[in-house]
Amino acid sequence: MVLNLHSLETSYRTERFSAYARRGMVATSNALAAQAGLEMLKKGGNAIDASLAAAACLTVCEPNVNGIGGDAFAIVAYQGKLYGLNASGPSPRGISLAALERAGHTEIPKYGFVPVNVPGIVAGWVALAKRFGRLPLTEVFAPAISYAEEGYSVSPFLAQGWNRAFEIFSQNLDGEEFSEWFKTFAPQGRAPRPGEPIRLENHAKTLRQIAETMGEAFYRGEIAEQIDAFSRKYGGYLRAEDLAGYQAEWVEPISTEYRGLEVWEIPPNGQGIVALMALNILKGFDFSREDKHSPLTYHRQIEALKLAFADAQSSVTDLKYMDVSVTDLLSQGWADERRRLIGDKALVPSRVEETKGGTVYLTTADSEGNMVSLIQSNYMGFGSGLVVPGTGIALQNRGYNFSFDPGHPNCLAPGKRPYHTIIPGFLTKDGKPLGPFGVMGGFMQPQGHVQVVMNLADFGHSPQAALDAPRFQWMTGKQVHLENTVPASIVRELQEMGHEIQVTEGNLGYGRGQIICRTDDGTLIGGTESRVDGMVSVW
């Protein structure tokens, strides 16, 4: 293993070095959120308080990719032990394939009430605050509430994503139930432009209610009643009873060993297992530092991920419904069998649908050794296109990930969690927390995890360089997207191996990552995404 956190290798894109700190660090995709997290550390809060401040702020400052009506997952290192949290919501109790067929559906639509599951993010925030937090939520959410009430200026990258969502919704959302989205997020009949101020006053009111009631208003109070009434009015399936019965779930993270590191993910229904399965295949190959820019390295990574995706997407769903065990999928026997399928030509595995993302990821660390890996999302940008009137809550559309095939393990069923794309990652070494990492972005996420881990463990990259290195994304079949920073010689040789290559810009579909690592002497080393508005705030 070539793990050198102090590597002086500069990043590929910006020639930035990793950030260093002693007392605290927050890495997010938004500068305001990163500063909000650091503010909590300076107030005497811990890494968990910092993560919650940043998470709440991101729902305000990046509403095009996450929100109060979405889901969340987290891995927390607290006093040297790892804890996993699954705050993804199930489908409503009143929905079923039969009900959808009676309503004329032959597949699960992207938008509207059908794909709306119970939002889990608020329950996840509350669970983290109650178990590990030090500051009251009223204080932790104060920066987010301030930005929502008083406004903030929209960055160019945010404006670009917001406008893309506006164009999609303008073309696809036709119905009175969608009018609140346009009133909330496009009050001038368009998306906000770069530099324009935006205020989300209803969002602020909802965050304040959540903080003051520790989530009770959302699941069993006034907000729950508003969600229920909105759903009933437009023939939705979500009910107050679904909200009242929901709780986030503490889970044991799953892991595999890779080059002396332990790589940790949340167990299914999340797709983190895909990254672990691919790494199990790849550790059967030898990679040197010089192999980073070898076409064979790219080829083997792509093929390993194809095989992991093919098996995971035929079996991964709500853990209670899986007919294949996590142990079997992570077994060395499975990895050895799949590795034998990798030759010198591109394979065509079972078909995997290309799906868009819409997610934020953040990491935090404090001087006490506590660290958080947290990810949250509405899915596919703003989610379902529905905003609960008077609340600012954009409802997610995670139900779109269910299968309509009654014979598939991930088939829609009442009260069931679907295959979920968002995954927080964590690294330990010799059983001790090394640090949180993640790469957001739909089905890019496990692919990003594999590439970042290999950049650290195989290729000797610093945390910042591990994020900045050129990325690929396998799409479906033999189709692979390569970032335009990948050398042309590698593109040509991969094409000769049978890969169907499309070269695209780096900010289009390659994920957005953050990472913090802690050295043995307590120094924090962080990296953030250079493709977008990433920032590391340090203390």
Can you characterise this structure?
With 539 residues, this protein is of the alpha+beta class. The protein has one domain. Helices cover 35% and strands 19% of the residues. Strands 1-20-19-15-14-9-8 form a seven-stranded antiparallel sheet. A seven-stranded antiparallel sheet has the order 7-4-3-11-10-2-21, with helices on one face. The chain is globular and about 60 Å long. The model has no long low-confidence stretch (mean pLDDT 95).
Key traits:
539 residues, alpha+beta, seven-stranded antiparallel sheet, 19 helices, 35% helix, globular
Strand fraction equals: 15-25%
Distance between the terminal alpha carbons, to the nearest Å? 30 Å
Based on CA atoms alone, the radius of gyration comes out at: 22 Å
Structural class: alpha+beta
Strand order of the largest sheet: 1-20-19-15-14-9-8
Largest sheet: 7 strands, antiparallel
Domain unit count? 1
Unreliable residue runs: none
- Strand tally, please? 21
Number of helices: 19
Shape: globular
- Helical amount among residues, as a percent range? 25-40%
